[in-house]
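Dear colleagues,

I hope this message finds you well. In preparation for our joint manuscript, I am sending the Aspartate/glutamate racemase family protein (Vreelandella andesensis) sequence together with its predicted structure, so that both groups work from identical material. I would be grateful if you could confirm receipt.
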Amino acid sequence: MRTIGVLGGMSWESTQSYYQALNQGVNQALGGFHSAKIVMVSVDFAEIEALQKQGDWQTAGELLANASTSIEKAGAECLLLATNTMHNVAPAIEAALRIPFLHIADATGEQCQKDGVTRVGLLGTRFTMEQDFYKARLQERFGIDVVIPNEEERIVVHQVIFDELCHGRIHNASRQRYLEIIESLHQQGAQAVILGCTEIALLVEQQHTKVPLYDTTALHASKAVNWALSN
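The corresponding structure tokens are as follows:
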């Protein structure tokens, strides 16, 4: 078994979901007392969130690249960046590493492609929904068209993530609003909806809607488990 590196803390609420998914995935595959070999660094999200607000992606990239190299030095053989939004600085991280970087959009795109999904809705922070680093990768690598919510809906999705989910607050009213937005994306032709923020799966699960959902945290962790257990 190879060692998985995890760069988390963005937020720690979803990073704990990664830790659980990685260990459960390995145990399901190997049984007994097996668990994942993990090297993790968890950053202070307040620093990252401030840089996001300032639009200072270069400094954020440098900070996360430095954290990533420390994970590599500690013995990790691949790296997971346990957040969708900060994949905006994935190039800076990849440039600093000698080990494989497992991109969250690739894990999601591969599953969509496998399922024959060619048009998806995307929920996430406003950075993920509005900027091209995520949408363009899905389009260029997997031929997937991406639909995003309207401006008012994007504000709601973003605010719920930062004001509630990152603090572990789960509210039924917010879940209902998300489900309405998911249905709206479906009405616009989305065959499925990507939960493109690692916290959203804390609020919305497949049991809540008939629209197929892609939980990026689960898909990313599964890709890492398969990688760690492959020869």
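For the figure legend, we might mention the following. DSSP finds ten helices and seven strands in the chain. The chain has a mean pLDDT of 96.

With kind regards,
E.M.
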